[in-house]
């Protein structure tokens, strides 16, 4: 049943009261006979105790069974190390992509102990195998400043890494453990044509050979790094040899954003702890006090186009396998400038036209809006008020400030709607402020004016609007990513879910539509893309190795299954399909090394199988067409019934076979 658009609007006009009968304004002629005057919709709302606003919100956001969401939200997963895909406006959780953390459902990290994305993404000099991460900032690849639906990058806050996801199959293809940084927060953000994925270190590290230095030498021996990881334009992989870093003072480089259009070629990094606080000791205060002493920290303005040229001219040093522009060179070549920014700021977000750089104060109840025109002029005129202790020129804040807009307590992040408005989250006030940009963004009436205060539940971090950080935002929906849920969800033990709230921002004032208490770990940032920009595979070409997206040399066709002993290995070339493994029996002797190459020879959509081996911590998932190789030593005698863990067919329970590990001499 389709509700005609006109009458739906009438229905939506119903205000706060309980929907009852004729008050809803539904007439039989317009809505079909089964929903006559005072009819079924009103009765449903009434019987469920829904107010008019709640019923209207439900109708505005429902995506009926079998129908699709027009938008996907790619949300980070905090310390789960994952990415979630959430349909907008349905707020249904559609998929979880493991990036830094092992996941037995997708077989990610349980297929092999010797190879694979996770082991290759751990620098063995840093620690042992890293099998978790802390994702904050997903970054969809862009073409001309718009999401292009090819790849997704995300940072690992915990370990200073970037994960790369291919949106052809929504799988993680690479983890790049970035040299010289121990943690990574500011980013990932991609340049407008996906030349680079950028991330900076949130806490500086010693530049000593062994990575250690006492905190007494913090100012001299600790450094931050801004990392420009080059993106291969065919595969989306990050290419270390083409990447570079810029050495920075040991401030805490926090969030970052790329310039676009008017500010293309620049990157902007917030920082805090210009005080160089190192924590409580006999004469020092705790970090949170020490790092909040000064009135200002420094916005880092980086001319990355110039940096590229300096790298090409060879004015670099090599440090741990990556090209680094030393701090003195960054200063002398005019790559790095500072602008004072109040006070322990958090988010920096560039307006869609690129003209305004909006700094959220965190400890300042306002956003400070810098103008790129004024920044460029100050740099050109060498209008500096001295340097910081490392010699970085400081542009006077008064020379570049277009506005200082009072919003409320705890501003964190800003998104744009493409209609001249900005939306800024207030963590402490649990609200979103809708305010206007200024003349450079085409706003002449009421520039830099607060329009609405939208309450959220509770303690919002980021917020997301479709394309909200691109050159072309679509001001339809807005999602508030709230850290606390308090009374919004029934009790689930002492740990509460985070709570995402969906708003209709087509409407003035914006209206809440629904919420998604998320039964997983905390998303920080999210990006929302129109689904028509995505073009995923439904099945792989036969024998595809998803890591390379090419045909695996171990791909096996039906009828070619075999077991080969050579070079000290037992190579098993196996196929899987509904509802059997071939071969079904794998006889070996204890101590033999196995390489099992499995190909899912299905060509039907959705026909996924797995290869689960009891007592071996082994679970490989095979989507249709996929080839996976697993490697392990048969180190214990026994008969192990491997099986398919995905319910694939009527004979799914019969889909198993035998790994027979005989004792020596049997
Ligand atoms: Cu504000 Cu890591 Cu982007 Cu959390 S960060 S909210
Ligand atoms: Cu294949 Cu169950």
Please characterize this protein's 3D structure.
The chain is mainly β. It has eleven helices and 43 strands. Strands 8, 9, 10, 11, 12, 16 and 17 form a seven-stranded mixed beta sheet that branches. Strands 34, 35, 36, 38 and 41 form a five-stranded mixed beta sheet that branches. The chain has a four-stranded antiparallel beta sheet with strand order 3-2-1-31, with no helix packed on it. A hairpin with a 4-residue loop joins strand 6 and strand 7. The longest helix is centred in the first third of the chain and has 10 residues. Dinuclear copper ion binds next to loops.
Features:
666 residues; mainly beta; seven-stranded mixed β-sheet; five-stranded mixed β-sheet; 11 helices; 43 strands; 38% strand; disordered N terminus; binds sulfanyl-(tricuprio-$l^{4}-sulfanyl)copper; binds dinuclear copper ion
């Amino acid at each position: 049943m389709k509700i005609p658009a006109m009458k739906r609007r009438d229905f939506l006009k119903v205000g706060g009261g309980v929907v009852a009968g004729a008050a809803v304004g539904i007439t039989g002629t317009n809505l079909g006979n089964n929903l006559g005057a005072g009819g079924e919709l009103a009765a449903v709302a009434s019987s469920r105790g829904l107010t008019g606003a709640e019923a209207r919100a439900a109708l505005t956001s429902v995506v009926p069974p079998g129908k699709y969401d027009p938008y996907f939200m790619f949300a980070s997963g905090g310390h789960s190390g994952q990415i979630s895909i959430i349909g907008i406006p349905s707020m249904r959780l559609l998929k979880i992509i493991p990036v830094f953390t092992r996941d037995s459902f997708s077989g990610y990290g349980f297929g092999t102990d010797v190879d694979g994305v996770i082991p290759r993404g751990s620098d063995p000099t840093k620690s042992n195998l890293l099998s978790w991460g802390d994702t904050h900032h997903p970054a969809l690849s862009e073409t001309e400043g718009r999401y292009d639906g090819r790849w997704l990058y995300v940072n690992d806050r915990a370990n200073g890494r970037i994960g790369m996801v291919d949106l052809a199959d929504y799988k993680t293809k690479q983890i790049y453990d970035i040299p010289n940084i121990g943690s990574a927060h500011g980013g990932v953000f991609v340049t407008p044509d996906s030349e680079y994925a950028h991330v900076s270190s949130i806490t500086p590290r010693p530049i000593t050979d062994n990575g250690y230095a006492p905190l007494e030498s913090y100012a001299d021996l600790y450094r931050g790094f801004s990392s420009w990881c080059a993106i291969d334009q065919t595969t989306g992989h990050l290419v270390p040899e083409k990447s570079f870093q810029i050495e920075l003072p040991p401030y805490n480089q926090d969030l970052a954003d790329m310039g676009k259009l008017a500010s293309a070629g620049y990157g902007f990094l917030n920082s805090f702890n210009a005080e160089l606080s190192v924590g409580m000791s006999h004469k020092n205060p705790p970090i949170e006090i020490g790092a909040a002493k000064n009135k200002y920290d420094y916005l880092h303005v980086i001319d990355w186009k110039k940096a590229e040229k300096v790298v090409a001219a060879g004015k670099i040093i090599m440090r741990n396998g990556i090209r680094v522009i030393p701090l003195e060179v960054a200063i002398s070549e005019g790559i790095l400038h500072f602008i004072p920014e109040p006070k322990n700021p958090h988010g920096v977000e560039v307006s869609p036209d690129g003209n305004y750089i909006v700094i959220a104060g965190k400890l300042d109840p306002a956003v400070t809006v810098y103008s790129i025109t004024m920044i460029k002029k100050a740099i050109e005129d060498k209008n500096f008020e001295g340097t910081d202790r490392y010699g970085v020129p400081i542009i006077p804040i008064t020379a570049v400030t277009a506005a200082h807009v009072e919003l409320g307590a705890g501003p964190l992040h800003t998104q744009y709607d493409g209609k001249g408005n900005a939306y800024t989250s207030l963590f402490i006030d649990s609200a979103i402020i809708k305010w206007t940009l200024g003349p450079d963004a085409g706003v002449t009436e009421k520039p830099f004016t607060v329009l609405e205060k939208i309450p959220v539940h509770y303690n919002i971090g980021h917020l997301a609007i479709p394309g909200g950080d691109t050159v072309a935002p679509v001001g339809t929906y807005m999602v508030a990513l709230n850290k606390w849920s308090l009374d919004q969800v029934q009790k689930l033990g002492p740990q509460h879910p985070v709570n995402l709230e969906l708003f209709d921002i087509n409407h003035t004032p914006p209206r809440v539509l629904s919420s998604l208490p998320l039964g997983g770990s905390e998303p920080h940032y999210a990006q929302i893309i129109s689904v028509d920009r995505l073009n995923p595979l439904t099945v792989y070409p036969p024998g595809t190795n998803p890591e390379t997206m090419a045909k695996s040399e171990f791909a096996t066709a039906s009828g070619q299954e075999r077991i080969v002993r050579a070079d000290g290995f037992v190579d098993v070339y196996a196929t899987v399909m509904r509802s059997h493994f071939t071969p079904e029996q794998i006889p070996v002797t204890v101590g033999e090394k196995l390489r099992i190459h499995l190909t899912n020879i299905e060509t039907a959509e959705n026909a996924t199988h797995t290869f689960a081996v009891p007592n071996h911590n082994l679970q490989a998932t095979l989507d249709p067409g996929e080839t996976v190789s697993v490697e392990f030593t048969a180190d214990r005698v026994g008969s192990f019934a491997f099986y398919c863990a995905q319910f694939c067919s009527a004979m799914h329970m019969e889909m198993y076979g035998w790994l027979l590990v005989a004792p020596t001499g049997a």
